[in-house]
């Protein structure tokens, strides 16, 4: 099977010797020779090669991307901030984790050095403080260098990694209940939630991801936790995390420059 440059792919016999095949034009993967097509032929060369069409059968193989068809979509807009660094509500400074709630048309932004979470409605010119904002501290109504935020939609709660205070806290989005510590004594980096309302937290000190099931008070380790290392069962200071619909956990393994599943 040989990958072609036309977006379709080809299958062909491998009878022609490698020495007969000429490299494709490197700028656009084209072939100057008549009755040839640019293909990927790893048995002969790492570079794409021009292959005789008489040796080809069916258009059923995986394609090779044509460089001439690659385009960068220039669709850029500022959705929050853009007014310089500062603590005004039309500014964003030291932003860390974010959460986008399409239902409420709001983006939630953790502002690390400002010790607060800001909710920014789509299309608005400024945001509003939805958690913290009462100075840096360890009181229940304060945050200390928050690093990430997610939303428990079922219970209408913000779940926040309060990194400087080494805890995970919840805040009501409607201010109907007081803030509450739900996971104490944890050097958290990132936080997310699955479709069942289970909370996942990445922890730098234990190089692990833990899960707190809905309605429970004790968390369990679901990834890592075997010391820091490069083995498949290890992490090294995992940062931001994501859980998909199949409950697979994706972790940005900060110190090793990789994303693991």
Account of the protein in words:
With 261 residues, the protein is mainly beta. The protein folds into two domains: 1-73, no CATH class; 95-260, Neuraminidase (6 Propeller). The chain is 0% helix and 36% strand. The protein contains no helices and 19 strands. The chain has strands spanning 3-4, 22-23, 36-40, 49-52, 95-101, 106-111, 116-121, 128-132, 148-152, 157-162, 167-172, 180-184, 188-193, 199-203, 208-212, 220-224, 238-243, 249-253, 258-260. The strands form five sheets. Strands 1-3-4-2 form a four-stranded antiparallel β-sheet, with no helix packed on it. The chain has a four-stranded antiparallel β-sheet with strand order 5-6-7-8, with no helix packed on it. A hairpin with a 7-residue loop joins strand 15 and strand 16 (220-224). The model is unreliable at 1-9 (pLDDT under 50).
The helix-and-strand class reads mainly beta
In total, the number of domains comes to 2
- Could you give a short account of the major beta sheet? 4 strands, antiparallel
Rough shape? Answer: elongated
What is the CATH first-level class name of the largest domain?
Mainly Beta
- What amount of the residues lies in strands? 35-45%
- What's the CATH H-level homologous superfamily of the largest domain? TolB, C-terminal domain
In the CATH hierarchy, what is the architecture of the largest domain at level 2? 6 Propeller
Topology, number of strands: 19
Give the end-to-end Cα distance, rounded to a whole number of Å: 30 Å
Q: SSE string, helix = H, strand = E? A: EEEEEEEEEEEEEEEEEEE
Lateral strand order in the biggest sheet: 1-3-4-2
The DSSP helix count reads 0
């Amino acid at each position: 099977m040989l990958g072609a440059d036309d977006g379709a792919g080809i299958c062909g016999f491998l009878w022609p010797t490698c020495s007969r095949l000429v490299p494709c034009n490197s700028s656009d993967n084209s072939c100057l020779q008549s009755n040839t097509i640019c293909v990927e032929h790893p048995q002969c060369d790492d570079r794409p090669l021009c292959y005789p069409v008489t040796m080809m059968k069916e258009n059923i193989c995986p394609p090779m991307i044509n460089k001439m068809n690659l385009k960068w979509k220039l669709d850029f807009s500022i959705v929050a901030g853009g007014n310089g660094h500062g603590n005004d509500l039309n500014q964003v400074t030291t932003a860390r984790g974010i959460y986008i709630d399409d239902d409420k048309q709001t983006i939630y932004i953790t502002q690390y050095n400002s010790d607060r979470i800001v909710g920014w409605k789509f299309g608005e010119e400024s945001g509003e403080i939805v958690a913290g904002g009462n100075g840096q501290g360890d009181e229940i109504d304060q945050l200390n260098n928050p690093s990430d935020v997610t939303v428990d939609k079922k219970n209408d709660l913000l779940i926040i990694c309060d990194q400087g205070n080494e805890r995970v806290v919840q805040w009501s989005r409607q201010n109907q209940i007081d803030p509450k510590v739900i996971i104490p004594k944890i050097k958290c980096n990132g936080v997310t939630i699955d479709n069942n309302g289970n909370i996942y937290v990445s922890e730098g000190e234990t190089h692990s991801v833990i899960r707190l099931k809905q309605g429970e008070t004790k968390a369990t380790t679901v990834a890592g936790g075997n010391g820091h290392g490069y083995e498949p069962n290890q992490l090294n200071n995992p940062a931001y995390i994501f859980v998909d619909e199949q409950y697979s956990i994706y972790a940005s393994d900060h110190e090793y420059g990789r994303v693991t599943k």
